[in-house]
Structures are given as structure tokens and as C-alpha cells.
């Protein structure tokens, strides 16, 4: 390969904070010091135990990707779409012009996962909402020399994910056995980051310092990423890359548009049940109804 390997340019520890109704998230992208890493708006490692959760709320202008690590979450939306995702399952939701939904724990104990918000370009912000769901057993995994990778989006070790990414994105879940090392091509012009889930690893250059769980690493430009597991335990991390959109971002909570006028319009649409929010008028999730009297 002709280009340079990517190196680590910034490192953040994602500390727990409260979000939703009694839920806890470790937010790395989307916090004050890192409002946006184009095209990524939010990366949350979430942890929810009933009755906590994320009751009925709207989205417009981006995609949410939910990838389960422990337990299960039930989602319901105002179109009648309802389902439960468990460990290793993926939901790739394009909110587009509007979704109202709930995301609540589906089993006992603590449910854990990752939720990534990916921005949409101005010409895609108002597209029809869409879901792509893949069960764990249908997520392809490649294994080579102590490296295993689950291909959530994009391509790795000759495997291509069936997920369609409106904003070109790669999302890979790597596990490196002790002593293993990996190298993964990432398109030169994309932004890319690593988020460590488990164990400790060396990223970028073989002599850089160790990174442990719950840390986000922003990577420099380059054409590939390298990582090493020099420890005696498995190392698990996600590598995510995306093509930058390069447009202004105006965010108001769950609405992400390009201008303040579009945000004002969105708030009006939501309050008046218009332009994609029609079905929000009479809809309440079953999860919410259960908690009313
Ligand atoms: C949201 C606060 C929120 N991270 N991770 C405000 F908490 C949310 C929200 C989530 C969320 C849901 C899951 Cl299942 C996992 C999450 C934030 O729902 F959308 C806004 N606006
Ligand atoms: Fe949501």
C-alpha cells in the first residue's frame, strides 16, 4: 500500500452520564469536547436496566445504528414497526424525515450496546424512514491468524456486509487473541475512529501507548489502521470509518439539520404532526402505555 498508516491523534475516555429515562451512557462522540466527527454525531456505549430506557422520542435528519453487546432491547415506532434485538444483533435505522419510537429493555438485568448516530447529507435528510435489521447469526465473521472480525458495514478480509449505508460507512467489530495483530484498509479520505470494548491494545504504531476499554481514539488521515494485542487477554474494539459530508450541522436534541430555519421547521412539524410526523398524533408505544394509569 502506498499511503501511510493512520496514527492516533486524540484519545478520550467516555465516562458514564445519564440520558433518556434513568439510562446510563458512555458518550464519546457528541459530548461537549467533541460535538461532531463528520459524519458521526453520537457514539454511546449504553447500559439500561428496567424500568429505565429510552421512552417515546423523535428523530429527523440522520441514521441510528444500534449494536447489542449484552441483553436485549425492544423498539417500537409510530408506523407499527416493532422488534427485539439481542446480543450481536444489529438495527440500522434511517430516520430520514421522521421517526418517533421507543427503545426499552427487553430482559432482566442490564442491557448493553452501542448506538452510533450517522449524519445524512442535505439531500438525504428528508428521505423516507427505513430499517435494516440483521440477526447475529447472519452477520458474517472472518477469522485469520488470531483475528476475528464481524462485518457490520463495509468490507473486511474479503467479506462484504449487506447493509446499505446512505452515508458511506464502515463498521467492523474486531477481536484479537493475545499476540495477534491486524491491518485494515480504510479509504484515504474518510474519517475513522476506534472504540475499545474489552482488553487492552496498541493502535496506530507498534510502539504507541496502551489503550483500555471505554476509550475513543480519533485517527489521522491514512490508508489503513494497524493494531496489536500484546496482552494476555482478548482485545475487542470497533473500527468505524465514514466519508465526511462537509456541510453545516445544526442540532436540536434529536433533530439534526443544516440550518436553524430547518430546525425551526422541524420543531413546528413535530408539534403540528406534519411532514412525516403525522402518525405521532395518536401514537404511544406499548412500553409507555404500560407505565401510565
Ligand atoms: C435521544 C436523549 C437520549 N443514546 N443509546 C436524547 F438518550 C436519546 C436516545 C439515546 C439512545 C437510545 C439507545 Cl437504545 C441507545 C442512546 C441516546 O434515545 F434520542 C435523545 N434525543
Ligand atoms: Fe432513538
From TrEMBL:
Binding site for Fe cation: 57, 59, 101, 103
Compartments reported by the entry: Nucleus
Presence of the UniProt keyword Nucleus in the record: yes
Domain Pirin N-terminal: 25-118
Pfam families: Pirin (PF02678), Pirin_C (PF05726)
Chain ranges of the Pirin C-terminal domain: 172-275
Family note: Belongs to the pirin family.
Name of the protein described by the UniProt record: Pirin-like protein
Amino acid at each position: 500500500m502506498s499511503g501511510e498508516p493512520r496514527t492516533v491523534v486524540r484519545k478520550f475516555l467516555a465516562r458514564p452520564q445519564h440520558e433518556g429515562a434513568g439510562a446510563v451512557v458512555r458518550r464519546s462522540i457528541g459530548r461537549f469536547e467533541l460535538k461532531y466527527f463528520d459524519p458521526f454525531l453520537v457514539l454511546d456505549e449504553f447500559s439500561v436496566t428496567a424500568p429505565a430506557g429510552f421512552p417515546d422520542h423523535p428523530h429527523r435528519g440522520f441514521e441510528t445504528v444500534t449494536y447489542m453487546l449484552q441483553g436485549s432491547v425492544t423498539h417500537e415506532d409510530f408506523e407499527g414497526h416493532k422488534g427485539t434485538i439481542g446480543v450481536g444483533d444489529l438495527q440500522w435505522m434511517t430516520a430520514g424525515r421522521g421517526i418517533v419510537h421507543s427503545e426499552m429493555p427487553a430482559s432482566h438485568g442490564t442491557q448493553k450496546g452501542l448506538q452510533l448516530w450517522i449524519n445524512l447529507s442535505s439531500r438525504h435528510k428528508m428521505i423516507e424512514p427505513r430499517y435494516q435489521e440483521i440477526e447475529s447469526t447472519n452477520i458474517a465473521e472472518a477469522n485469520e491468524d488470531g483475528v476475528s472480525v464481524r462485518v457490520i458495514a463495509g468490507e473486511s478480509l474479503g467479506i462484504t456486509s449487506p447493509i446499505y449505508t446512505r452515508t458511506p460507512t464502515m463498521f467492523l467489530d474486531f477481536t484479537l487473541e493475545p499476540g495477534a495483530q491486524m491491518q485494515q484498509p480504510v479509504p484515504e479520505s474518510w474519517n475513522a475512529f476506534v472504540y475499545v470494548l474489552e482488553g487492552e491494545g496498541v493502535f496506530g504504531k507498534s510502539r504507541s501507548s496502551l489503550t483500555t476499554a471505554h476509550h475513543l481514539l480519533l485517527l489521522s488521515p491514512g490508508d489503513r489502521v494497524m493494531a496489536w494485542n500484546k496482552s494476555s487477554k482478548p482485545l475487542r474494539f470497533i473500527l468505524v470509518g465514514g466519508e465526511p459530508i462537509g456541510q453545516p450541522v445544526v442540532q436540536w436534541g434529536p433533530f439534526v439539520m443544516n440550518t436553524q430555519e430547518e430546525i425551526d421547521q422541524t420543531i413546528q412539524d413535530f408539534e403540528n404532526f406534519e411532514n412525516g410526523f403525522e402518525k405521532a398524533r395518536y401514537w404511544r408505544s406499548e412500553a409507555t402505555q404500560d407505565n401510565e394509569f
